[in-house]
Amino acid sequence: MEDFQFASIVVSTIRNAPVLMFAAMAGLFAERSGVVDIGLEGKILASAFVSAGVAYTYQDPWLGIAAGIVASVVLALIQAFVSITQKGNQLVAGIAINIAMSGLTFVVAQYFFQQGGRTPDLGEARLTSVILPGTELVADVPVLGWVYGSLIGGHSVLVYLAFALLPIVHWVLFYSRFGLRLRACGENPHAADAAGISVQRTRYTAMIIAGVLCSFSGAYLSIVQSGFFLRDMSAGAGYLALTALVFGNWRPVHTVLGCMMFGFFAAVQIQIEGVDLPVVGRIPGSLIQMIPYIVTVVVLAGLMAKSVAPKALGKPFVKSR
Predict the structure, then answer these.
(1) Tens digits of per-residue pLDDT, 108-159?
(2) What domains can you pick out in the chain, each with its CATH number?
(3) pTM summary value
(4) Which burial class, exposed, middle or buried, applies to 51 when counting CB atoms under 10 A from its CB (0-12, 13-18, 19+)?
(5) Looking at CB atoms within 10 Å, which of 37, 67, 84, 110 has the fewest?
(6) Residue pLDDT, tens place only, 171-225
(7) How far apart are the first and last CA of the chain?
(8) For 103, how many CA atoms within 13 A lie in the half-sphere containing its CB?
(9) What CA–CA distance (Å, rounded) separates 163 from 168?
(10) C-alpha span between 211 and 159 (Å, rounded)
(11) What is the DSSP letter of 199?
């Protein structure tokens, strides 16, 4: 058990959570406006591939992130066109994007890079960690050195962005004029329309914001965590983000806590793999990999009845005449 370190789990939790946090906040904007965003998984994959491909080609991680934003927003607009303008089935539109991106990213990666559907290692184009000023001075100080150097410092810019977005998203949703209109469109679009709010424009804006936020999730996977793109590397992160939304009752702070919970179990999974535990011994890797998904089922089973979704979620808006 000496390999099982709680400090490593805490740091890993912070580094695992942003993938889910960006996607969950993206889903928060979309679903608060009344659009079911089950296509998060596909947008994560698309942005992860485009970010990695462009970053490797031009050896610039920031250019890769910008390209990933474009890819994710384009998919978000396609999804919005089907769901909002054409009033199609929102679940089908999202699932179609997920399936299409799962296959398309692999095929395009194989066509351009010829490495079995993955991109080459990014090397210098990978986004590096931020070393805070004075880290070396306090490195040998017990507790403080670890807190300042590893818990607070030593993370990518995208990690800090993920946590910095939490108060901003909370303020936008609950204290801004746009947030009020967004929530009105998700709860009672006909009343919002009667008050002079353009439901279609508001929902399109929400989907564009969701596309931008979701792109950071994909970029984080490929440019920060892995350093390359691999087929289906999101591994259900989009669906876990939706579960965090249910866990958080479509509220930013509670949703992020749900993401942290899933990040914690993912960190525990890594820590206990290959370690001899008391009584049970060494757990097979396949069982360990099931931990986040078992937690997902338990959370959904326990909280689904207690969570209250926006009343107009998944319902196309037809303007009254």
Answers:
(1) 999 998 888 888 998 888 888 888 887 777 777 887 887 878 888 888 899 9
(2) 6-131+138-303 (1.10.3470)
(3) 0.90
(4) buried
(5) 110
(6) 999 999 999 999 999 999 999 999 999 999 999 999 999 999 999 999 999 999 8
(7) 68
(8) 5
(9) 10
(10) 18
(11) H
